[in-house]
Input
Amino acid sequence: MLSYLHAFHAGNFADVQKHGALALVQTMMLAKASGIACFDTHAGSAIYDLRGERARKTAEADGGVQKLWSGKNRLRSKDWKPFLEVLAGFNAGSGELSVYPGSPVWFQHFLRAGDALTLFELHPSESELLAGWVSEAPIRMLRQDGLAGLLRQLPPKQPRLLTLIDPSYEIKSDYLDVAETLGKSWQKCRHGIFLIWYPILTSGLQEQLKEAVKDTAVRKVLCSEVHLRKPPERGMTGSGMLVVNPPWGFDSRFSAMMDDISGSDALNLTHDMDWLVPE
Ligand code: SAM
Output
C-alpha cells in the first residue's frame, strides 16, 4: 500500500538540490548532439500546487524553492538560469511562485528531437494525474515498478542514458534495492548517468544505500549532501544525491550552485561533495 504523496513536500530544500542537479546535468548533456534516453523511475504527478492544502499543511516549500525564488537576484552561479526559467514559465505573470514542477517537467524541458523520456509511477492517483500530463511521444508513462521497469528497458536505443531514481523510501528494503538496481543497470549501460536521491535521516538508514553502492562494480560515483543548519530532532535532517558518471566539470559547477543557497538568508544549510567511489 503506497501512501507517500509528493504534494506534501514539493519544492522543499531536497527538491531544490535534486532538480538543481538534474537541470545542470541536462544542460551539460546538451553540449553533444547524440540522443538521450531519459528514465524517471519514480515520477510523481508532475505538477504541484504550492497554494494547495497539502503543500500548505507542511509549508516545506517556504524553506526551499520560495527562499530561492525570493533571493534569486543574489544567486551568483549562472547555472541557476535554466532552473529559474522553468519556474518562471510556470508562474508567468505573478511575482509569486504558486506552481512547482516535478521531475517529469524538468526532464521534458530539455528534451530534443531524438531524445525520449520514460516515466514510471505506481500510485493510483499519482499515475492518473501523471497520465493526464503526458501528452505525446517521445514521453511515455508506465504503471510499473520503477526499478524492475528500468532494468527491462536497458540498454536503450539512444546512445546516451540519463536516469533519475527517486523513491519515497517507504519500504526499508528500498535502500538496498536501489543499490542493487544501480549495479545491474550499470552493467547494461556503463556510460549511463544515474542520479539517485536519498533522505539523510537521524536513523542513518541512508548509510545502507551508500555502503551497498560501494559493494557494486559501479565506478565514478559523486556524492552531494546538504544538511539543514537547524535540523529537526528526528526524521529528515538533510538530502543526498549520488551522481554516477557526472559530466566533466559538474562537481565544481554544482558546488557553486549549492554554495549560493547555503546562507542563513537563503536555505540555511551546509553542503559537502566528495567521491563515494572514484574512477
Ligand atoms: N521524482 C518526483 C519529483 O522529483 O518530482 C518525486 C517522486 S516521489 C519522491 C516518489 C514517487 O514514487 C511517489 O509518487 C510514489 O507514488 C512513487 N512510487 C512508489 N513506489 C514506486 C514503485 N515501486 N515504482 C514506481 N513508483 C513508485
In short: Strands lie at 36-40, 47-49, 99-101, 116-120, 139-142, 160-165, 193-201, 221-228, 236-244, 269-277.
